[in-house]
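To illustrate this point, what follows is a protein record of this kind.

___
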Amino acid sequence: MLKMFPVVSSHRLWWGGLQRRICLKQPVLSRQRFQHVHVRVGDRAELSRAFTQKDVVAFSELTGDVNPLHVNEDFAKDTKFGKTIVHGVLINGLISAVLGTKMPGPGCIFLSQEIKFPAPLYVGEVVVASAEVKRLKRSIAVIAVSCLVRESEKTVMEGWVHVMVPEAPKP
């Protein structure tokens, strides 16, 4: 059974030359779960998924983004895409899943991102979301991210994210 502990941690970050202090108070898994979290430049992680039309509709309902390009096949067939496409933010959610569950893993904090969507992702295409640590500065990791369609190797999302890596527990 996993134990939950309330943890308060403080971190000082530098953005635009201004020091800001943030405090995080949230329940997290026992610190022992973080002992395996060690991030180095060159570390990589990935996951894959194919979104269904049901996934896209559920996302539309949750967010209110009911753009017919995503949910109406009749509308989408008359666009340059020819059929419905997956929301870009839904694709981006795969990157959040990679970062939060695989690398750096549980306890990391998503700070910022810069992404672009060079091609559409169609419902049913298997997409591989990947992340690779490019730089580390103290507890901040700069990570290159991308999402590619497995079959065609078409890039549907690419960019950079900054995450705060959880501190390794003291032995």
About this structure: The longest strand covers residues 4-15.
